[in-house]
């Protein structure tokens, strides 16, 4: 039965943010809090199967559907998710379209009595802070990143040491529990924006997000004690305890249908043949290679990846997302005869892969990942070692966490961030030999490989425990809900 609490969840319309937000909505609703998620028609279709199953199971979840004015902002009709953008040059238009949801949302809130007890918003929607302020509702943010990233970002903002450096200069990330080295060109866009006009435009957006973030009531994080405890402790201290680590979210999807449809209801079509293929492979023998929802490798970079996997001689699954370059990639696949050469040993997925379902299969032995935070934590939950190939955003931080702190990763050797939309300028960063070498290393049967596998399996168990009844994430979730309850009571007394 639902309690008297009601939370409003506002996701960024982008799979890497919406997927964990949907999981989080289910998680909070499991604790008898009514949660309304703001959604648009196309996303309601894409994520609706999972949400409606949760509602049918009795969870107090509501959908608040708002029209998305894509065409008013120069976006193709029906373009309601960042991964639908024909080019990332349209990101500015997309965010402008998102900001117009403020008015209809405020109209709904005006009518609502009582108001929600808290707004959980993606931090990349700073206009939601204005909504929260107007209606005097605590604004809790979620940005789908680790405490390692939060702490590293905070410390860099305070120290500004990156400002005096050139791109190739090496720095030690200030104030972290471990000595983490990286070059300036591997830092996220906030510290390493590049010189393009788009970069300059983005700078002010990032700064606005950062300013709003500092005003947040608190922060929810998809992470858990036991994986990055020292980073969590430090970050909680910094935020006076108003940080709640309630992950890992992907583990909440316990049935195969939810796993198969996580992120796209249609991926169920792909997943059936893929799972049948995996059933034929031996335990821990397959490398699963995927770059998340936004990265589009250039055809030349894709070729190096494909040939590297072929050279490694391991069975593999390769997720192909070419975006506007799909035709070129398909042409190469066809003319080069790649698919027929790797027939039986390589399985290609075009479009959306049921990642969490695939990773949970006993045949998967390693995950070649772009180190998006969701993918990184899903790799941890699956208990598999990873080949790390960061692309953009904070992904080099995640690589350092996986390789250096957790000890479960092998670097492919990426050298610098490739900002979304600037892939062509980056040329080929990683050669087929690098891919092959990293694949052999991660699958290595010697002591080093075995150590990585032992650590990965251990972390899987720690992740499972975190969300059990006595687990740290359960504890933090209860702490969060009680905090909001108390805040509401105090507000009523004072009001
Ligand atoms: N994902 C998936 N199938 C795909 C691509 C991505 O299920 O074909 C999911 C993946 O499991 C993860 C999310 O989409 O939950 C991607 O988030 P991440 O932070 O890893 O990377 P991003 O897409 O934001 O770069």
From TrEMBL:
Pfam families for the chain = UDPGT (PF00201)
Q: Which Gene3D superfamilies match?
A: Glycogen Phosphorylase B (3.40.50.2000)
Which keywords, in A-to-Z order, does the entry hold?
Glycosyltransferase, Transferase
GO MF annotations for this entry?
UDP-glucosyltransferase activity
Q: Which EC number(s) does the record attach to this protein? A: 2.4.1.-
Tell me which InterPro entries the record gives.
UDP_glucos_trans (IPR002213), UDP_glycos_trans_CS (IPR035595)
Q: Which PANTHER family is this protein grouped with?
A: GLYCOSYLTRANSFERASE
Q: Which family does it belong to?
A: Belongs to the UDP-glycosyltransferase family.
Q: Identify this protein by name.
A: Glycosyltransferase
Top enzyme class: transferase
């Amino acid at each position: 039965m639902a309690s008297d609490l009601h939370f409003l969840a506002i996701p960024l319309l982008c799979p890497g943010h919406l997927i964990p937000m949907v999981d989080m909505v289910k998680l909070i609703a499991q604790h008898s809090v009514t949660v309304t998620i703001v959604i648009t028609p196309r996303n309601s279709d894409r994520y609706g199967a999972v949400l409606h199953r949760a509602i049918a199971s009795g969870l107090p979840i509501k959908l608040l559907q708002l029209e998305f004015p894509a065409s008013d902002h120069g976006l193709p009709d029906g373009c309601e998710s960042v991964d639908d953008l024909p080019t990332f040059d349209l990101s500015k238009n997309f965010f402008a379209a998102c900001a117009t949801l403020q008015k209809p949302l405020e109209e709904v809130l005006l009518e609502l009595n009582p108001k929600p007890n808290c707004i959980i918003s993606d931090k990349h929607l700073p206009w939601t802070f204005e909504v929260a302020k107007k209606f005097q509702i605590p604004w809790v943010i979620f940005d789908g990143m680790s405490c390692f990233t939060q702490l590293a970002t905070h410390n860099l903002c305070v120290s500004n040491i990156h400002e005096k450096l050139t791109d190739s200069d090496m720095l030690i990330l200030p104030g972290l529990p471990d000595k983490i080295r990286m070059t300036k060109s591997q830092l996220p866009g906030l510290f390493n924006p590049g010189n393009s006009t788009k970069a300059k435009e983005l700078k002010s957006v990032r700064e606005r997000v950062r300013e709003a973030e500092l005003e947040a009531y608190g922060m929810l994080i998809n992470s858990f004690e036991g994986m990055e405890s020292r980073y969590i402790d430090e970050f909680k201290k910094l935020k006076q305890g108003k940080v709640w680590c309630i992950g890992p979210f992907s583990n909440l999807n316990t049935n195969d249908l939810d796993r198969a449809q996580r992120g796209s209801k249609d991926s169920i079509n792909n997943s059936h043949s893929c799972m049948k293929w995996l059933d034929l492979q031996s335990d821990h023998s397959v490398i699963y290679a995927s770059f998340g929802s936004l990265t589009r490798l250039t055809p030349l970079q894709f070729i190096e990846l494909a040939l590297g996997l072929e050279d490694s001689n391991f069975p593999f699954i390769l997720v192909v997302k070419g975006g506007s370059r799909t035709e070129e990639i398909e042409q190469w696949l066809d003319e080069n005869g790649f698919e027929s050469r790797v027939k039986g040993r390589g399985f290609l997925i075009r479009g959306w892969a049921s990642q969490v379902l695939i990773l949970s299969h006993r045949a998967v032995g390693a995950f070649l990942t772009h180190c998006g935070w969701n993918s990184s934590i899903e790799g941890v939950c699956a208990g598999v070692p990873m080949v790390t190939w960061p692309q953009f955003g904070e992904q080099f931080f995640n690589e350092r966490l996986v390789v250096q702190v957790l000890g479960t990763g092998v670097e492919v050797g990426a050298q610098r961030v490739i900002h979304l939309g600037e892939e062509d300028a980056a040329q080929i960063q990683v050669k087929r030999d690098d891919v092959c070498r990293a694949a052999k290393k991660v699958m290595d049967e010697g002591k080093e490989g075995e150590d990585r596998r032992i650590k990965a399996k251990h972390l899987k168990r720690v992740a499972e425990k975190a969300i059990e009844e006595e687990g740290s994430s359960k504890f933090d979730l209860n702490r969060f809900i009680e905090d909001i309850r108390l805040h509401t009571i105090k507000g009523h007394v004072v009001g």
